[in-house]
Structures are given as C-alpha cells and as structure tokens.
Amino acid sequence: MNDFFVSYNRADQTWAEWIAWVLEAQGYTAVIDVWDFRPGSNFALEMQKATAGSQVTVMVLSNNYLQGLYTQPEWGAAFAQDPTGAERRLLPIRVGECQPTGLLAPQIYVDLVGKGEAEAERLLLNALKERGKPDIRPSFPDSTPPTERVTPQQIAFPGKSSCPNNLPRSGAVAFVGRDEDLANLHDQLQQADRLAITAIRGMGGIGKTELALQYARHHRDQATYPGGICWLAAKEQNIGTEIVNFATDQLGLTVPTDIDLARQAQFCWRHWPGAGDVLVVIDDVSGRDDIAAYQAIQPYLPPDHGRFWVLLTTRLQLGASIRSFEIAVLSEAASLALLASLIGAERLEAERDTAQALCEWLGYLPLGLELVGRFLQRKPTWTLAQLQAQLEAKRLEARALGQARPDMTADHESVAAAFELSWQDLDAPVQALAYRLSLFALAPIPWGWLTEWHDDTDPDDLEDWRDDGLINRSLLNWVDADTVQLHQLIREFFRLKLADWAEAEGLKRDYCQQLVQIAQQIPQTPTREQILALTPAMPHLAEAATTWQPWLADENEALLWPFVGLARFYEGQGDYGQAEPWWQECLTVTRSRFGDRHPAVATSLNNLALLYQSQGRYEAAEPLYQDALAMRQTLLGDRHPAVATSLNNLAELYRSQGRYEAAEPLYQDALAMRQALLGDRHPDVATSLNNLAGLYESQGRYEAAEPLYQEALAMRQALLGD
Fold this sequence. Notes:
Blueprint: E1 2-7, H1 13-25, E2 30-31, H2 33-36, H3 43-52, E3 54-61, H4 63-67, H5 71-81, E4 90-94, E5 110-111, H6 117-127, H7 179-189, E6 194-199, H8 208-221, E7 228-233, H9 239-249, H10 261-270, E8 278-285, H11 290-297, E9 308-314, E10 323-327, H12 332-343, H13 345-350, H14 352-361, H15 366-377, H16 384-402, H17 410-423, H18 428-438, E11 445-446, H19 447-453, H20 459-470, E12 477-480, E13 483-485, H21 488-498, H22 504-519, H23 528-534, H24 538-545, H25 561-571, H26 576-594, H27 599-614, H28 618-636, H29 641-656, H30 660-678, H31 683-698, H32 702-720
Parallel strand pairs: 1-2, 1-3, 3-4, 4-5, 6-9, 6-10, 7-8, 8-9
Antiparallel strand pairs: 11-13, 12-13
Helix pairs in contact: 9-10, 12-14, 12-15, 15-17, 16-17, 18-20, 18-21, 22-25, 24-25, 25-26, 26-27, 27-28, 28-29, 29-30, 30-31, 31-32
C-alpha cells in the first residue's frame, strides 16, 4: 500500500512533481503517473491500482483540475471511501485560484497560492500531521522563534518566481533563528550598492553562506529581483568566467571573445536583458589580506548604480565603502530548534537541561549542532548526557587536530570534537572516500569524477558511502544534482586525518594524474561551450598545481600540464592577467624541479613568450624565444619537432614586428625541418606553409603567397576534414 497517489491535470504537472518530490524526500511513498506508469503498461489498469492501492489521494487543485474530464473519477474514488473525511483519504492542495463547489466545497484544503517555496513546503508537510502542534515548545515571548524547515531543492518549485538564477542547494537541515537577520539584511542591502556579510571573529561554521543563500531563495520566491539572481563563488574560482557563463547559459547573451575577461564581464552587466532589479551574490571573498581580496573581485563588479544589488560573504573587513553586516552565533532557542529538527522534540525535551548545555558547549554553531544531531540520529538508544560525555572525551583528540590550525577558537575545538566522534563512526570505505574528497579545492566537485576514479567499485556502493556515510552525517553537501562540496572546516579536518593515513601518498599522486588528464583536454583556444564545460575543473587544477604540486610526476611533462591547462583556459578568453601568473609559475616550478637546462624549461619559456607576444610585449617575448630555441638545439639536436616549433614562433614574432628579412629564413628552416621529420602531409607542415604565406602577403609578394595558402588549405581539408 502506497502512502499517496498524486492526482492532477496535465496543466499542473510541475506542481504535481514538486509535491511528489517533497513527499518522497520525507520518506513517504508517492505514485504519480509521469514517474510510475511506464511504457508498455495499461494506463487504465495502472490508474485503478494507484487509486485503490494508496492511503491518500492528493488533489492538485486548480481550475484546470476542477474542469478536467478525467480528474473527477480520481478524486471521486477517494471520496467514496471516506465521504465524511474522518480518515482524511482526500487531501486537496490548492495551487491556483479556484473555488471548489458541490461535494468539494466543504473540503479543507492546503493553500499554496502565492506562497514561496519554503512556506509552501512547510504548509504541505504540516498538513500531513494529525495536529498542528509545533515540534518543540514555543519560545518564550521576546526570544527568537524557530523558523520553518528548509529542505534542499531537487525539483524546481513551480510557484511565483521565474527569474533566471543559478542558486545552489541549501546544505542546511533546518534554517532557524535568522528571521531578524534576514529582515535586517534586506533593509541594509537596499540602502547601499554593495554589502559585505562578515562573521564575527571570522569564525567558519557560523552560517554566512547559508544566510546569503536563504536570503536569495526567499527573495527569488518573492520576485524581489525579477532581473535575476547570480551566485558567484569567489574562493578559488574566477568570478569573471562565472559571470560570462551565467550570461551565456541563463540569459542567452552572446558575449564577445575578442576582449579581455574583465571587459566581457562589464559587457554582461551593460547588456543584461529584461527589466527589474538584479541580485549578485559573491560568496566567500577571501585573500591574503583585505586589499588583495577586494582587488581580486573589483574589475568584475557591476556598475555602482542602477539595477544591481551586490551581496558579499567574507571573513574580512573590506573597507569603509562596503558596509558590514555582522552575524552572531545562533540563540539558545534557535540552537534547540535545530537540534530538535534532527533528533525529535520528544527526545530533546526528555533531557532539555542537557540539550541546553550541549548547545552552549558547541558554541551555538550550526555546523557543530548538525554534526552531533546527525550522530544522535544514528544512535537512537544514546542519551544526550552519554553523547556529551563522549564529546568531552574527544576534546583532547580535537586539540590534536587544532595544532595544525593556529586560528582554532574554543568553539571550533568543540566542532572538532563533534567531527572526531563522527569520524570514528565511519566505515573504512567511507573514510577512504572522504580522504579523496579532501584533496579537491573548496569548490563544487563533479560527482562523475569520483565514479570514474572508482571504476573498480560498484557505483551503488559508492553512492551509499556518499549518501549514508557522508551527506546524511552533514559531512558533505549537495550543490546540485551532479556536484558535491565540502565545508571548509570539514575539509580541513579530513586533510588532517589524511596526513596520518598510510595510503595518502598514492592517493595524492592519483589525484594529480587524473587532473593532468583533464588539463590535457583543454585546447589553446577553447570555445564558449568548452569554457562552460571546463569551468568546474579550474579550482581543482589550481589545487593540483599548488597544494599537491610535489606529487605531480616528472614523466611526460605531467608537472607542466596543470599550469598549461589553467593558462590556456584564461588566455583563450583574453584574460591575460589571469593567465600570466600560471605561465610564470610554470617556469619557476620546472626550473626548481629540473634545473636551468631541461626540455620542460624550454617549453615553459616558449609558452610565456607566446603570451607576451599575444599582448604585444615583443621586447619581453624575444629573449624567451631565443633562450628556448638555444636550449632545445643543445638538448635535442638541430633536427627535432620542438626545435622547428621554436624557429616558427621566433619567426612569427619577427613578422609581428615587421622584421621580415629576419623572419623568412626561420620560417623556411621550420618548414623544411617539419617536412623532413613529419612528412609532406602533416598538420604542422600545413601550419608552416600558412605562416610563410602570411609573411609573403605582408611583404606584398602575393604570387609567392597564393600557392602556399592553397597547399595549406588542401592539406588541412584532407587531414582534418571540411
């Protein structure tokens, strides 16, 4: 017997699917035809089974439903089984303006018309209870009241909002105690062009990101920002690329690629379509200091005035021009509400004094409360006093964790103790998955990567380790349907555990190897589609190039590839300022690893020179090209494809400077060498023919240029296709 059958008119399918999703997310079983009536089955028989085999029929009530021809027998069957409503077999959910008449007129319905998603979900779930009594004792007047539970979104809410947005899922099991913060935040945001949210004492785990996300979700549902809500992750990611991706993917803008990335971002702001205000959230603005953090985002900020409202989250104080909105830890009442949402009100009330002491011990931090609440969920026989004793016992181990974190406060030490308790409750395969996840940057992680890298593991087992082992313990969060992410503190704890794991060295090498393979897929000039696809990989490539650099292999230029991939990604978008540090660091790292004379060093010199040439910095490029050429000739001999490449590149530089007489013999030598080494039909030979023709054209030697262009074209068509 199923719990619910969802009856709806086709015009309200989005509502029906959202309702079914919310019900199943709470552990109920729901039958809905679009999910459960599969091809080849008999629709009439499936409908008979659904209506007869479900405890409750949910009516997705609207004028479409009331006027539908086939919906009447669906609700009629449930009505006939319970005409007085004593068993509540018929549950009307009103989703559109309508006025039920006849037998339906006296039915009490749940009214979702005009409600935002959080409110709609609360009303729906509250309707399933026998009484409307709240889950925990109401707060004493003048204390902070508990707010509604917010469930991570997986089916798009079909209610009021239709503004373009890319909001991530909420990682909170319950969002409590922040009603006043949300209201005050909105008031302050509307009084200034830019606003920074700063956690007091710079603590992680206090809920800065969650507050910003709940604010954005609430005002998305309220249509406060009809022009759109753009969520940008500042930490370890390039917000310029994120802005362009949002404009391309969500707004349908065609962004010019012949200008640098900062100007592409400004193009997006100037050509933002539609009407109405736009909210831009830049999450986790960080840097080595306040000035550096602001300078990293400043070129990409929207105009000071107009329709854009900018909300920042940060631990830093970014200057007097950006107003701060400081948030405190949760109140005791809100902390108890959060804990009750996890362990149940009855269990909490049985040891209320201990629960209050436990919340205080955890510093009223949401992250710590979620960790212990999730732990207690899995230990139904444990008392809160027993848990508190275990946490006290784990404090010494937590202090050992904190030795690697000089900024750890007493509150964070309590969170570390809660983490330690959760960690020791994990099975070995789950811990191994946590180790691997800890290697990634603080950015969304495509889950498909983990599946590919565990190709010897049953995908169902891997999902169980992820869901039951980590997500359901608040040790990992969903970002969207395909990506996960670690909280900063949780990643730090995982990494500290990784340092003591016997297999850590091999895991780090494996991570680097996988990221090298991704870097090798990045072309020199990525298309817009490739940029969208590659953007999630950039912070993780940067992690390989920095944190895990010592574990990059020497063979096959593996050391170079993360730097090459990052620099190509940004240079291909015209963002030379972002690309240059990666090319420079690549040169520094290869010299440090291999010495001053090595093929990898020559390649690094050549790549940096190419960037300078693209910028018109010819005087800076020339000595690098010359050094690369001389080094390759010494190390590889006078006849090698890499030597031909250096000859060609130096010739290109001379042509750009108008030094045609110096360029011509280099072009000719490169062409002859490639023909001898690679044969007469090879893409590099076609490139040399094309470049030499370009030189002749620049000199006005058109008769010499034409046959070379024609030969290059024919060769490329034959080798590469039309």
